[in-house]
Amino acid sequence: MNRLFLGLLPCAVLALSACAPNQVMAVQPIDGVISGQCHTDKVRGAVGLAASGQTVERARVDSDSLKVRVVRGERQESGATSSGQVDPAQGAGQSGGEQLTIEHGPTNNITAIYCG
Questions:
Q1: Averaged pLDDT for residues 6-24
Q2: Could you please report the per-residue DSSP string of 32-81?
Q3: Which SS3 state, helix, strand or coil, does residue 109 take?
């Protein structure tokens, strides 16, 4: 009886640990401080990714923005990529202000990132 119990114990522990929620680490800035002065040079690579909560928060922190606004964009194609081939948003700022604006398309992919 004890052998049966000892044999089932590791299986039970393993099964219960699989049900535990995944712990997501908080997003922290690399230098430890968010300046509040938005700049998009470090977040251009997020264009094309899904606009999930984690991606949006990571972009906010990496751009040094205090606020982030996610809006549905009118673009049919993605904005600037990490190579900077396309203007991210006509007339929008690449730096300045405390807010990062992220536009997403019909499939929830990020189409543009800009300050303001």
A1: 56
A2: S---S--B-TTTGGGTTSB--HHHHHHHHHHTT-SEEEEEE---SS----
A3: strand
Q: How far apart are CA 97 and CA 116, in angstroms?
A: 6
Looking at this protein, which amino acid is placed at residue 84? Answer: G
- Residue 55: exposure state from Cβ atoms within 10 A (0-12, 13-18, ≥19): middle
Token digits of residue 100 = 């990062």
Question: What stretch of H or E contains 112?
Answer: strand 110-115
Residue 105 contacts residue 111 (beta carbons within 8 Å):
yes
Q: Which helix (H) or strand (E) holds 11?
A: helix 2-18
pLDDT tens digits, 25-84: 567 776 677 888 898 988 989 999 999 999 999 999 999 999 999 999 875 555 555 445
